[in-house]
Specification:
Layout lengths: L1 E2 L8 H9 L4 E3 L11 H12 L4 E6 L21 H19 L4 E5 L8 E5 L5 E6 L17 H22 L2 E5 L10 E2 L2 E2 L5 H10 L5 E6 H6 L4 H14 L3 E5 L2 E5 L2 E5 L8 H10 L5 E3 L11 H26 L1
Parallel strand pairs: 1-14, 2-3, 3-4, 4-7, 7-10, 10-11, 11-14
Antiparallel strand pairs: 5-6, 6-13, 8-9, 12-13
Helix pairs in contact: 2-3, 3-4, 7-8, 8-9
Length: 331
């Protein structure tokens, strides 16, 4: 396992800084509209990073939070339609392009409602913390614009997606890594008429069972998985073991929280409820072999706040990987 990032590089200086910070593996998505992607474009993206000794090994396909009405790919999870069929065909072509460009895997997200949060709170030194409190979630918002989708409907759509895309991924040897819905809101609940079936770890157990393939797995967001637990400080390690021993973790978002299911804040890695060094040792224990990356950091003060926050997280991850490797060598 090794450090990686999906933080957007705005220019070549940002790429150079990553190399200086020892981050040599990335997930970076082309800025061009999805309809304009080609294998040559993805190859050019890889070459841009190669010049700095950095490996572009994953990209995000446009199935992200609340993508349903923001790009043509969103039709994939809106139910049966000609638009869905066209988007699925294009997504299969995207897998072929990625393979031709030498990209290991594609990260994506199955959620119609996007990233759910309530009013932010504030942590050490006044850092702004992304916050979720289910009791404060706006329940007056109207039904989702694309119509309701209960658990059965969402699983029918997901099953169709997997049966279409995973055979292509197998043919071209591209890992498909699904990210949790952020956050899960518990079992048997909907919000705006839509079930968040991939917000809880049980949903991901079903996902990998629906289509058993070495190319069907997780962009394992440790933060999201922790948010779905009643006691993340005790439970998260067995969740890592469940998916890790089955070789279903294709990427890791290494993030800490304070709180539990339906009431939490995102914090710096060193101050949350989860023992992050124990978590890193658990990834080592299960033989995880890919990127460990930060995905969110608290909002801090000053110029280049995001860059500084992520640099802090990179340093923490470097140290945690070294500590996990040292412990393994001493065992």
């Amino acid at each position: 396992m090794y450090i990686g990032t999906q933080t957007r590089c705005r220019n070549d200086t940002d790429i150079e800084v990553l190399a200086q910070l020892g981050v040599f593996n990335v997930d970076q998505t082309p800025e061009e509209p999805w309809a304009e992607w080609t294998a040559d474009l993805l190859k050019a993206q890889r070459e841009r990073f190669n010049r700095y000794g950095i490996n572009l090994e994953m990209i995000h396909i446009p199935l992200g939070s609340a993508s349903a009405f923001h790009n043509e790919a969103g039709a994939i999870f809106l139910g049966k339609s000609d638009a869905r069929d066209r988007a699925l065909d294009r997504m299969c072509e995207t897998v072929r392009m990625a393979s031709e460009a030498g990209i290991r895997g594609l990260n994506y997200n199955i959620t119609l409602l996007g990233h759910l949060r309530t009013e932010p709170s504030y942590g050490r030194g006044g850092a702004k913390l992304s916050t979720f409190d289910y009791d404060k979630l706006d329940q007056a918002r109207p039904e989702f614009e694309g119509g309701p989708a209960d658990e059965d409907e969402m699983w029918e759509r997901i099953d169709h997606w997997l049966k279409t895309i995973i055979p292509v991924a197998e043919e071209y040897k591209v890992q498909m890594a699904c990210h949790p819905s952020d956050p899960g809101i518990g079992h048997g609940r909907t919000y705006r008429g839509v079930a968040r079936v991939l917000g809880m770890s049980d949903g991901f157990k079903k996902l990998i069972d629906l289509y058993d393939s070495p190319y069907n797995g997780l962009n394992f967001c440790q933060g999201c998985m922790s948010e779905s637990l009643e006691n993340p400080a005790e439970e998260i390690y067995d969740v890592i073991r469940y998916f890790g021993t089955r070789k279903k973790i294709f990427n890791v978002h290494f993030r800490n929280i304070k709180g539990r299911l339906n009431k939490f804040v995102e914090v710096f890695p060193d101050e949350g409820d989860v023992d992050m060094l124990k978590a890193m040792r658990t990834y080592k224990e299960v033989g995880y072999e890919y990127m460990i990356m930060p995905d969110h950091v608290p909002g801090i003060s000053g110029p280049e706040a995001g860059q500084v926050g992520f640099a802090y997280a990179y340093g923490y991850i470097h140290a945690a990987i070294q500590a996990a490797n040292a412990a393994d060598s001493l065992a």
